[in-house]
Amino acid sequence: MSIVFERPHALLDVTTNYCPGCTHGIIHKLVAQVIDELGCEGTTVGVAPVGCSVMAYNFFGCDMVQAPHGRAPAVATGLKRALPENVIFTYQGDGDLAAIGTAETVHAATRGENITIIFVNNAIYGMTGGQMAPTSLPGQVTQTTPYGRDTSTAGYPVRVCEMLSTLSGTAYAERVAVDTIPNIRKAKAAIRKAFDTQIAKKGFSIVEVLSTCPTNWGLTPDEALQWLRDNMMPYYPLGVYKDTTKEEK
Amino acid sequence: MAERFLMKGNEALAEAAIMAGCRHYFGYPITPQTEIAAYMAKRMPKIGGTFLQAESEIAAINMVLGAASAGVRVLTSSSSPGISLKTEGLSYIAGSDLPCVIIDVQRGGPGLGGIQPSQADYWQATRALGHGDYFAIVYAPNSVQEMVNVVFDAFDNADTYRVPVMILSDGMLGQMMEPVSFPEREAKVLDKPWAACGHKNERKHNIINSLYLQPQELEKTVVDRFKRYEIIKEKLASAENYLTEDADIVVVAYGASSRIVKSAVNAARAKGIKAGMIRPITLWPFPVNAIADAAKTAKRFLCVEMSMGQMIDDVRLALNGAAPVDFFGRTGGIIPSPAEVLEQIEKLAE
Predict the structure, then answer these.
(1) Which pLDDT score is estimated for B1?
(2) Which residues in chain B come in under a pLDDT of 50?
(3) Per the domain annotation, does A97 fall within a domain?
(4) Sheet with strand B100-106: strands edge to edge
């Protein structure tokens, strides 16, 4: 009997801390599959954030560094400058990347820092129990927006790919989702493209993955996927926002 | 005799760091430490090193965290308000057992304070470099030559003990020019099997981390670190004794103020007052024994600082009531004069 599908080598056989129905597991698998395909587990160093994926250092088989909240792109910069031939990626949530770590994110991008960011956008702070994120939608009810996000006092959600695509140092920025099989396939292709961009030393690459948080959204996993399609996708359109790798060819 | 150069403290320190094997510098502009960054910006590209001007002190210290995780010798420098910003990263660095060297060229505070020399960050350096149970080794050189010497010790001991090491300088030591010679000393190269530099499919993955959700596990990491601190206290505590053998009055001062105190002690001796000086070279570990030993013969102690009195706490702890301690200090960027210090010594001699 031949094996047609198995756990990627770069994803360790351990129990994760993620809630049932959460899409972190899918995204972890995609990143690990790409690392396997590229055969780069031995030369890759990942950076875990603060948030639900804080313990990603226990789940990926490559060397891992845990960063202070929001600082993963700076930590990755230090790693990359010390290890220019290695593959360096960060795995960050929306609060980490687009609130407390906005400066680190924007400046890593504008420096053209040759790193890859996997940005998991689920429009909420999951780890701390469901507070408003910089990407929470107008009207979205969270623990800290109990009457819905009121844009007159809490402002508007940040569109990260759109923002970073204006910066000269960004080589590749794409927004994907992991709600359906076709979208999961596209997400994997985007992650592969981001890693390829880094390996080709083209500059900063980011893949934003629209993700769900059934626990803090108060929905079943299936309802959560539908909520993502109905509410997140219109505000955060999927697609490639920047790709300079083509232009250079 | 080794060749001597006339250099600013900040620049001599930067060159010494390069000689000690540092090829990665991350910083952010702030007076009065900017010469360090400017020097590194000029030198690093010529020797295949990294100079990176970060978007903030917070980013700079986290770049240090990343580079230290990879196993390289790495340096950052700042001045008082910037060090406050770095303390978050320093706590993670200490909690992750990472080696690195941080320079604090102190200026007056609190807040934006001023840009003149100060010693008002003693507490921050020795007590409050971030949240949690931890220390950094803190060196306090008092000349451009000593600045160069301690840089080598700083990198070596950071690697040996896997701790952050701070060199606590100030605007006066950083900016002044003195003749200096660079020691013929090889950069120590230590194996770092813990580094996150890619496992090459030859070992289990390395994890650099400071998170331990089980209290028993966290307590164990902290207790183990404090066992290393005990070794550091025993081996590295260092002070200079100046005319203390027969001294009735011992003045305790470090860094820039120790130079003024030395003049005042000499002037007191000329007037027949048996004064001496103890100059801590390491502030953490504090040279407790040097102070306690001096109390066997000295009658009074005087602590002189460019602050409202911070190191005096450690002097009192070291004396443990064995002798009275007085204080004299100027703050806000004012450097005390030898005459002011002499006046204090004379008062105590009455």
Answers:
(1) 61
(2) none
(3) yes
(4) B50-53, B24-27, B74-78, B100-106, B164-170, B137-139, B282-284
- Alpha carbon B23 to chain centroid, angstroms: 20
Residue with token string 């011992």: B250
Query: What's the CA gap between B222 and B227, in Å, rounded?
Result: 9
CATH topology of B5-186+210-236 equal to that of B240-349? yes
Question: B205 and A64: CB-CB below 8 Å?
Answer: yes
Residue with tokens 């994907």: A176
Q: Which domain holds residue A233?
A: 24-248
Any idea where the domains of chain B sit in the sequence?
5-186+210-236, 240-349
In CATH, the architecture of B240-349 is 3-Layer(aba) Sandwich (3.40)
- For residue range A26-79, what is the model confidence (pLDDT) as tens digits? 999 999 999 999 999 999 999 999 999 999 999 999 999 999 999 999 999 999
Q: What is the CATH number of domain B5-186+210-236?
A: 3.40.50.970
Q: Is B53 on the interface with A (CB under 8 A)?
A: no
Which residues of chain A are within 8 Å of residue B86 when distances are taken between CB atoms? Answer: none
Give the closest of B56, B198, B205 to A86, CB-based: B198
Please give the Cα distance from B307 to B109 (Å, whole number).
Answer: 9
pLDDT tens sequence across B281-333 = 999 999 999 999 999 999 999 999 999 999 999 999 999 999 999 999 999 99
> Closest approach of chain B CAs to the CA of A226, in angstroms?
34
Q: Do A62 and B205 touch (CB under 8 A)?
A: yes
Predicted-complex ipTM score: 0.97
Residue contact B207–A79, C-beta within 8 A: no
Distance from CA of A44 to the nearest CA of B (A): 5
Distance CA B55, CA B257 (A): 33
- Which residues of A lie inside 8 Å of B (Cβ-Cβ)? 41-45, 47, 54-55, 57-58, 60-68, 71, 74-83, 86, 103-104, 106-107
Give chain A's domain count: 1
